[in-house]
Amino acid sequence: MTKSTPTVGVVGAGVMGTGLAQALATTGHEVILVDRSEDVLASAERSIEQGLRLARLLGAKGPREDRGTVLKRISCTTDYEGFERADFVIENVTEDWETKRSVYERIDPLCPPHCVFAANTSVIPVTRIAGATSRPDRVVGMHFMNPVPLKHTVEVIRGHHTSDETLRAAARLLAGMGKEQVVVQDSPGFVSNRVLMLTVNEAMYLVHEGVATAAEVDRIFKTCFGHPMGPLETADLIGLDTILQSVEGLYQAFSDSKYRPCPLLRRMVDAGLLGRKSGEGFFSYAITRP
């Protein structure tokens, strides 16, 4: 990679992909945002514009560029147009192995040989993802936190074949986004989700068994431990469907009953109670349409 500001392909225009596109464009990166749905891309554009407006109102640090200038750095596509000039790709699709594998099989022949692939995954091993490409040494994990523009640290995962140069490229990209990193070794769930998913799943069991209400569980964590958010409010923010996929992934990876999903979690997902994204989870939220 020779350019000082790499061109970044962002795969998936959901909550994480939208936040990434905003954070990258705000820091001067050309972004190619791809999703299968035109409607999802249109919604992502509206969310990014709204996010830029809110950032200005909240006095965000960094260059104070016109919103139009930032938005012009983002190209939206449903067919990976422009990926032949990508220096870096960050993939954000659902935590389903077959879905992820199909993405890497699609982008591998499109992108130039020097392009680095970063999986924004919370549970699927980076080494397995690398095996689906012809460039396993240029595959790395980047576990961004939600909301991406406001979170300053990223969990970076080194797969079995990830090279030192790939790690340096990842560090340069994150530094260019104004973010710090913590590098860990490859393992399902890595550090953050292996601990967090157990915590939120067990918090759900406490509600499921009638030991405490959701509000009482969260109040203990906030007032006794000083956490800004309780585990169930955190689960609502992430999305209960995403939580269920992550816990199921850990359960399958380790064959350990401590990762068995709480029945209440399954029931809420079946009922469409997904947290903030649906307006109701363990708590209720007013949905703001962009």
TrEMBL record:
Involved pathway(s): Lipid metabolism; butanoate metabolism
Gene Ontology annotations of biological process type: fatty acid metabolic process
Signal peptide: none
Residues reported to bind NAD(+): 12-17, 35, 95, 100, 122, 146, 277
Pfam families, per database record: 3HCDH, 3HCDH_N
Site feature (Important for catalytic activity) residues: 143
Domain 3-hydroxyacyl-CoA dehydrogenase NAD binding: 7-186
Domain 3-hydroxyacyl-CoA dehydrogenase C-terminal: residue ranges: 189-285
UniProt GO molecular function: NAD+ binding; oxidoreductase activity, acting on the CH-OH group of donors, NAD or NADP as acceptor
Domain of life: Bacteria
UniProtKB keywords: NAD, Oxidoreductase
Family that this chain belongs to: Belongs to the 3-hydroxyacyl-CoA dehydrogenase family.
PANTHER family per record: 3-HYDROXYACYL-COA DEHYDROGENASE FAMILY PROTEIN, 3-HYDROXYBUTYRYL-COA DEHYDROGENASE
The protein, known as: 3-hydroxybutyryl-CoA dehydrogenase
Source species: Streptomyces fagopyri
